[in-house]
Fold each of these.
Amino acid sequence: MRVFRFYKIISVLLRYGIDEMLPRKRVPLWAKLARLSLFWLRNQHKEKALGERLRLALETLGPVFVKLGQMLSTRRDLFPPDVISELSKLQDRVPPFPGEQAREVIEASLGFPLTTIFANFETPALASASIAQVHAATLKSTEKHAAKDVVVKVIRPDILKTIHADLELMISVAQVAAKILPDGRRLKPVEVIREYRKTLLDELNLAREAANAIQLRRNFTDSELLYIPEVYSDYTRQNVMVMERIAGIPISDVDALTSAGIPLKVLAERGVEVFFTQVFRDSFFHADMHPGNIFVDPSRPEQPRYLAVDFGIVGTLSREDKRYLAENFIAFFNRDYRRVAELHIDSGWVPAHINVEEFESAIRTVCEPIFEKPLAEISFGHVLVNLFNTARRFEMEVQPQLVLLQKTLLYVEGLGRNLYPQLDLWKTAKPFLERWMQEQMGWRAMLRSVQEQAPRWAEKLPEMPMLLYDTLTTMRTHQRQEASLVIANEQLARAVAVSRWWTMLAGSLTVTSGLFFASGVHEYATLGALAFSAVAWVCAWRKTPQRKV
């Protein structure tokens, strides 16, 4: 089965001429010979552009590869703009599997008939994607909750086996690409596929998605910016999730938003604030913010609020990455390109041997033209391409942990451009980041740290006297042991010196007795020398320090 699947993947890629993307000089001889031997798998779409052929090949290979293409569409360091444009067209539209089969899967997972908890369950799928599909339903009223319109998300049956097989093949291909591609080490194709694998497998676990939704909902409790639907954990399993059904206007339907009286400028600015709040305040962000997952609450047009769904992909940042990113953003906003270059080197993203002045000049060349322009005149994709080309010159390695953040930032750009093309992203984001940096590094940060640690200190305070006594006792014991060790070392040194003196004397007397014997000196003198040497050897042995076992 695996061999057949591998052959199918290779045949599709070759029939679309995807092998033309590999640099000829770096392809090993064995690979060229193998390509020639597959003479019946010729490029059948020579009239199409390379980007279009890559998109069509991924669509032919199925959902796993479609999702890979969607992720690669954000990797502007890997492909030229025309290829990225084609990959961005990938749509994850898959026919639904039978509704009756979905009912069976849900009942088997929950362990009881659907009629037990649902007053109504719509067998035809409400929506369908490559990983799962969604059915509308109505929860019955119980002691825990009132009757509620919900959606039931169910993973496609038997998809896990196919996904695992495809991912293993992708890893193998990435390992070959890492050796063939000129920038294989810097671009880290194996790490990229492994990151994709982790993301995709996380999407297959609806219990994890439910936990992500609950976390985001808690982060934005009573928020005026973002609403996260309620998850019903009692009815959620690894392959089934029940969530509150929301009603909103799709973020891509600008005409409907305008008809509802929603101010698009305010909505766009709030979208930027939602993004930066998730990233820098919470270090936990919705990483799949494409238009199909974002809606707007029409019930409050004067204060537009976002509604989000599909939480299978979330991103997190370490404290160090978050701080470096915030400082980089602020340095960019302030046009302090020297600081940007230094931050890249300090963080290890660029090697320490790189000339800071040259790197600063290169960054200025890329970024200076984009400032003081409305969003309609700025393409972050174009800026990223130039930045990655610049980074390639300065040996900057791709940071896999930032791939999701980059993808989300590009989604935010697209949403902002669609809603309000004149939005100045820089002016909208700068005050938020400056306020965040002040909270992280100023007196407020110190006060917050004290407040956060106070309960722990209060818990440990009664133990402090005993801990202090134990510490002093241990220190006193160590001091005594050190003093005893010094005395013992001094005694040992003296004993070694005495032992060496007796050994030298014994050796001298032994040599003397040998000379007496060889020269024919009177035998009494020889015997006397031997006797004295024997006594000296005994004394040397007695004076030698004995090791304690």
Note: The first strand starts at residue 118 and ends at 121.
Amino acid sequence: MRRIDILVVLLCLLAMSGLGVGMAASATPERMASPQVAALEAAPRPEEFIEGSVGPVRTLDPQFAATPAERAISGLLFRGLTRAGSDGTVLPDLAERWEASPDGAVVTFHLRPDARWHDGVHVSADDVAFSYESVADIQVRRIDRFTVELRSDAPPTSTLLRARLPIVPAHLLGDVTPSERAAHPFGRAPVGSGPFALLESSEDAVLLERVGAPPGGRPSPYDADVRAEVPEPTPRSAPRARAHLERYRFLLYPDEAAVAAAFEAGDVHAMAGPQPADLVRLIAEPGVQALAFAGTRSLVLVPNLRFAAGPLRDAQVRRALSLAIDRDRIVESVFAGSGLTAQTVVSPASFLFDPRSLPASELDVAGAHAGLLAAGWTQGTGGWLRPGSDEPVTIELLVRDESAAPLDRAIAELVAEDWRSLALTVDVVALTPEELVSDRLRPGSFDVALLEIDLGLDPDPSPLFASSQAFVGGTNLAGYQSSLMDRLLADFREADTDDRQDRSAALQATLLREMPIIPLVFPDEVFLTLDEVLGLEPRQVGDVRDRYSDVLAWRLARPRE
């Protein structure tokens, strides 16, 4: 569902960066000679992987999971129709295959006949229809027990990426009203279809246990009035390899600092999202590895283009100011080197990124100075003067305060320092999110604001730049209007799979020239682990659940002491 949060443009949340469609592979372990009885008696206990996370855990229903721990754990308990591949592909998950209609509007998914909920009931088209009934922009139709259609105006690739939405069991939740869902016992004792099932839970920890393939036969952990008869299992075409990790424990902490302390003490194997200062300290420790998952959220400067008096109203000025920003310094000093510099709103890690749209130089202070002169600005004793004005230019840069966004102020001060090197007067003003949105952004009372946006794994910038969204309260916060941009956006949205790369390239080239917003950086999603943890493969992730896409390949190099 596309929506604007208070400060985050959250678009195509269930999107991903792959044009290719891969097939999941599973291998059958080589058969070994029968072990001796003594060897059987000395078999090691199940491998237990321990991750530290910020709690609390109030619900594990994926629709209501909000804290980092809730979202991470639900990602192991539930599956979608598809999952993220490591090389920009879409892989099957609950769906074993799919095909798109000739016009690309309909994607038909065929479910795995061996997929079961943890209580033994088959995963069916009814579950998919139930899970998608409230999703905007997608219409779902049940064809038969194991076949379902998703209809959308988006290209097939986007539909496949959005099909990562966690599917929930209709036989347990079908009679639960939306108002009852958030407080339903399902959230505390979930029944999923993922590689792990809930074994036990407390205020301090959650323990998951690997579920064999196909999962089944486990009773529901709570009573439900609506239960479907468990059908006979469908024979599988091939055996599936078991996970290397048999148990996955989450230890819950009140904040990121406490998680970092637990990781440093060796109490946990892994942690996600360390603060930059913690990251620098922890990666210096022996035996620690940092995996950088390229993220889809970015930090950008949004200028006010609604009024001619705005200091960034001229595209030539915006390009000049962009040239003056040392993005590499932001990545290094604010994010401890874990991030990608941004020139357009499409991440360099995205399959739609076009390197040809990059400028010859990302940092060019002399070029920035020349650009201001070319825009008709003149430099006087009191600062820069715009054409026809005798008042020196002052740029007010708005940011969220530290309680809402701890790193924004540091980023804004670096940008201001770069612009001051051009002899510009820049004031950084920190506001609460409510003040920033209600008092400044919505009425258009600002020069430029540092904001966070997220276009997802299949980036569609239309809501950011479409003229139809330039009204007060619309998603085009800059108020940018261009008939050329509107046409390019429409062409991109209507493109089939073969044309999307070229149309995206044309769109990025125009964004670089017009600079309706000034992109800064795509921070990485960092996952710290001990070096005994093997099998993790970084990829671009649009959601924390994507990090667990290859969890079946994870293993520990040696038993934990």
Note: The mean pLDDT is 84.
